[in-house]
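Researcher: I'd like a structural prediction for the single chain below. Treat it as a standalone chain; there are no partners to consider.
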Amino acid sequence: MPTPRRIAVLGAGSWGTALAIHLSAIGHAVGLWARDAAHANRMRAERANARYLPGRPFPPGLTPTDRLVEVVTPQVDLVLFAVPSHATREMAQQVAALNVPGLPELALVAAKGIEVDSLETMEHVVAQELPALRGRVAVLGGPSFADEVAQGQPTTVVVGCRDRTSANRVQHAISGGRFRAYVTDDVAGVELGGTYKNVIAVAAGIGDGAGYGQNARAALITRGLAEMSRLAVAMGAKEETLSGLAGLGDLVLTCTGGLSRNRRVGLALGQGRTLDHVLAQMGMVAEGVRNTKSVYQLGQRHRVELPIVETMHDILYDGLSIEDAAQALLRRTLKGERG
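Model: Treating it as a single chain, here is the predicted structure.
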């Protein structure tokens, strides 16, 4: 068991709640912040998050609240950002506005995405708003469905941080039970892997929903990995990171697992539903929709050819039909596999 710590988890969706349950179960005192007071009150009363993670009771050491000042205190050792990527900057600004002396000591970002307007990674977003943490903001990647983490199912993740001491401290804080963390200094690789796989998962879901078969899904995963690696390396990441947990591991899980929100969005689109209808029905964030915009723009900025992402952008934002999209990918100029 890790040394007990005080941890603030910001964001009471399924992912934040799952991490809070895990961290509390391995002995930490965890404050779970929810934006909505009614949501926090219900969690306190029911000792569970029935809205986003039903059937997963809270351990005794988990305390839900809607008051940020109650979870982000001078005693906190680690602040974990688990709000969606598009809300991470605002969340970091709220933490900074508290002006808590000496806080935070460490930050871990669990959101997987790139800010659409600035094209900044989550590490840079948090560091910009909390400059005292520059170089010590860690990011979390790897194959990890929220419900399985909350159940205590075996899970392996990777922590990326530029400062090795900080990476090791986060690694030891979150590892325990059936949850194991590895470390790397390749923050860019972890962030790009976590972002890109969401886009490919939507594409894989579309293929499944349209009935294109398992051959097509395997091709999307494999060619998606090739695209992901090209862009990540162009942005300074290490190619081997993308063949590890943060890249291939998360990509396979998200493209094939029934718990994947991004794949579920794709399935519905492939079955003929509109994007607006699908997102309204879900009630939860599927990062791949926003990620498609940011990854598409990154490809243009770095002049990297990204056929699947470009096609997904045309489907989601320019009205390209799914059959025309499939044909466009299949009729591209023939070339070698590494081309």
